[in-house]
Amino acid sequence: MAIEVAIKKKIGNFCLDVAFSAGEEMFALLGASGCGKSMTLKCIAGIETPDEGKIILNGRTLFDSEKKINLIPQKRKVGYMFQDYALFPNMTVEKNIMAGMGRKPQKEIVEDYIRRFRLEGLEHHLPRQLSGGQKQRVALARMMASQPEILLLDEPLSALDSFLKWQVEEELQDLLSEIGKTVLFVSHSRDEVYHLCDRICVLDKGHIETVQEKKEFFANPVTRAAARISGCRNIVPAKRLSEHQLDVPDWGICFELEKEIPENTTYVGVRAHYIDVSTDLAEAKNSSVMQTDRLLEQQFESELVLKYSTETMSLRILMDKEKAEQFAQHEQLRITIPEHALLLLHA
Question: In this protein, which residues make up the domain named ABC transporter (predicted)?
Fold first, then answer.
């Protein structure tokens, strides 16, 4: 089972231009609000119509602008779960599930979905009587009752508070692993996609930045936008001087690297936990002396903010609170960035 998408759509000044494929996996569309994630799902579901391109699901053409094919949503066999689950407020759990099963739903099949999604005892409850996790299970049961070939989940956890989100996320992970279908999961949360998904497609301003395996994406994002979305706090311009030399003025470092530096490298990044800090100001490779700017306390750790000069961008370092407080008492600190921690990025 697989989906292939290659579409373009313009709305005002916004241009969506995406091309990707996904198999039987949890495939994330990750990006900031307004980058085109939900619009992509709506085009696949048939709620919106692309200006051009094609969408193929398991060999069936759902949309092809050249061949003038555009199946209506009811014929696409696509399950779409909205952010707010879109349950019918005046229908019971049982009737909500039946709504996805056509004109003559069979009672025993409805009962099977109620068992599969652990909704026993809630059959006659209305949506307002359900918890967030129960509503999600009802929405998933209704979606699966329509026998879709693919599931589209549009930020299904965004409306939940943090404590409930953890519980519902675990339930969702278990349910989706049992279903065994292609799932496109839209989110702006790095944590959600890391916990739930296999591959990650990063969208930025309507186009795809990168498609990578989950662990590879977080370890080695390849573009500036992807690194930012992956949670990297420190991204600055860089100039490639040679195959193994890289000048980074904002950090006051000219890096000497063992690995070869790609020719298109124009930025570097480093995660806030991977920077070595010392009160010893003696010269060292791939390091510089920075001024202590401020200390920002967080709940479980602290962020030490340093600057190479008043005109350069800040370098942010996360560490144990007690250690950060000790370092913050010094006006100057030497920072060293290990080669393995340096992200080589292009625009």
Answer: 1-230
